[in-house]
Amino acid sequence: MIELRNIHKTFNRNSPAAVRALQDVSLTIPEKSFTVVVGSNGSGKSTLLNILAGTVKADSGSILFNGKDVTHQTDYDRSKWVARIFQNPLMGTSPELTVLENFRLASIRTQPKKFVIGTGEKFKKLVREKINMISLGLENKLDQPMGTLSGGQRQALTLLMAIMPEQLDNNFTAESRILLMDEPTAALDPKTSILIMELSNKIVREFGLTVVLVTHHIKDALNYGNRIICMDEGRIVRDLDQISKSRLTLAEVYEWFQ
Predict the structure, then answer these.
(1) Which tens digit of pLDDT belongs to each residue from 5-49?
(2) How far is CA 257 from CA 11, 153, 231, in A?
(3) Where are the alpha helices (DSSP H) in 89-229?
(4) pLDDT digits (tens, 9 = 90+) for 140-173
(5) Prediction pTM value
(6) Residue-wise over 215-247: b if at least 16 C-beta within 10 A, else e?
(7) How far apart are CA 173 and CA 43, in angstroms?
């Protein structure tokens, strides 16, 4: 479970250019839920995601993951719980490394890094099994540099890397695993966008992740997740559960972006 308690964040404090990004935001996100965050530009959506990830520090307030206070933890320390999909497919992976090496880095992200990255046959088999889930034929391109793949292929593989087990002899467990998705289809064509969202939904349901998705795509806001949160001027102005969400129309959600 994610808990935000009275979070405040102002950029460029004590200057004429000060921006109040978050104003007294409190939010509880149950474990294994899929929350969609929407709102106009500058509403605080990305700041909320960055504070959850640990890349931005709150001015005040507290953040808890499953009851553990992580308010002052770095993004690296939070990687035990948090995986992230960025808007830009070039982020979140190492383009010079092969697909297999990227998966290995993902699997040891909470452990001290070594100069040698072990990618033996047992690990290759595990990666192939994961990649088979997306039916893109990438299971035979493990030795190809990640940077040579298309944006959609990289986003799909980044999703799979979020569910890599930390130990090769253990199956993946969804305990405390949080997936943050920052407009993951913004740079993709419509066909690939649908593929990525369907894959996201499949992975979320199958592995029981706790997901927070920021999106400007109105249909995605309605089609995915069991909750919609609308932000405006750094505050949560609407918080709709599954039943309330099902009654919304495209026109009503579109008004939130005005």
Answers:
(1) 999 999 998 888 889 999 999 999 998 899 999 988 889 999 999
(2) 22, 29, 10
(3) 99-107, 121-131, 151-161, 190-207, 218-223
(4) 888 999 989 988 888 888 888 877 755 444 444 4
(5) 0.84
(6) bebbebbbebbbbbbbbeebebeeebeeeebee
(7) 34
